[in-house]
Design goal:
This protein has 293 residues and is of the alpha+beta class. The protein has six helices and ten strands. Strands 1-3-4-5-2-7-10-9-8-6 form a ten-stranded antiparallel beta sheet. A hairpin with a 5-residue loop joins β8 and β9.
């Protein structure tokens, strides 16, 4: 069955999700935070209150797509080999700081299915509101690339005119990933065997399991948080980027950050990219926005 284009524009039924203090601590460890980031990795350190890494917003806002109001079961996007699906792009806006434990009600919408020739790009948007107050908390936008599902004669989709500034980065932050990083990160909910099963990874054309794109994204978000936002998650407003190459657990990642604008009250916008030690770019077209101090 080809991809179901009738899902475009269909808002899903509300999906409720909750998380605990332990979930946000585990997420922080999964994206590489440790003993130098106790506000994100402990809940009972003296004179330190627990806070949440902003990129946890992507997990908090996840919800099934295509499930119409009143349906008990979600509609399928189509029949395809899941090994052919890769996360292509991710963006989010945080309307206020995330609590260590919380509950949201989320609706999601397929916003487009684009023909990229060798595959299809499927874009979605999710909106998450506090389940108690109804206050808007997160807007998340993402896309997946499904190899072999292109060639249907559709639009190719919008282009992003991101360009690297013609000057050295204002900040460079380097983190080493652990050889078992994917095994730790998957405990936050993404059990796709592409990140743990060598046989499944081989079927997808990889020599060994790859790191979750959202783990690389979370590592990148840590670099942005500490370099530009003074380690204050309340200042982290938005982040977007495209996954351009896979990362293998154990590789070293460097985030290059160009602060593109600052306001007198401490707000800022920035461009960024994340690359491996050999220079291979793994997240490109990066943008981030920060609130005043």
């Amino acid at each position: 069955m080809p991809l179901d284009h009738s899902l475009i524009g269909v808002e899903s039924a509300p999906h409720e999700r909750s998380w605990t203090s332990a979930d946000t601590l585990l997420y922080a460890l999964g994206v590489g935070a440790g003993t130098e980031e106790l506000a994100f990795t402990t809940e009972n350190s003296a004179d330190i209150r627990q806070r949440v890494l902003p990129t946890f917003a992507v997990l908090a806002a996840q919800a099934p797509t295509g499930q119409r109001h009143g349906q008990r079961q979600g509609r399928r996007l189509g029949d395809f080999d899941p090994a052919m699906l890769v996360h292509a792009e991710q963006a989010f806006e945080l309307h206020r700081e995330l609590p260590p434990a919380g509950r949201v009600r989320t609706t999601s919408t397929v916003t487009g299915i684009y023909d990229k020739g060798s595959g299809a790009l499927v874009t979605t948007e999710a909106r998450a509101a506090d389940a108690e107050s109804g206050e808007s908390l997160i807007t998340s936008r993402s896309s997946v690339f499904i190899r072999g599902e292109g060639g249907f004669g559709g639009e190719r989709g919008p282009r992003d005119e991101w360009a690297e500034p013609g000057r050295p980065p204002d900040h460079t932050v380097t983190y080493e990933t652990r050889p078992d990083q994917a095994l730790l990160y998957r405990l936050s909910g993404d059990r796709n065997p592409l990140h743990s099963d060598p046989a499944f990874a081989a079927r997808a054309g990889f020599p060994r399991p790859i790191l979750h794109g959202l783990c690389t994204y979370g590592i990148t978000g840590r670099a942005l948080l500490h370099a530009v936002a003074g380690s204050d998650p309340a200042r982290f407003a938005a982040m977007s980027g495209r996954f351009s190459k896979p990362v293998f657990p154990g590789e070293t990642l460097t985030v290059s950050i160009w602060v593109s604008a600052r306001t007198s009250d401490g707000g800022a916008t920035a461009l960024f990219r994340t690359a491996k030690e050999d220079g291979t770019v793994v997240i490109d077209r990066g943008r981030a926005a920060f609130r005043p101090a």
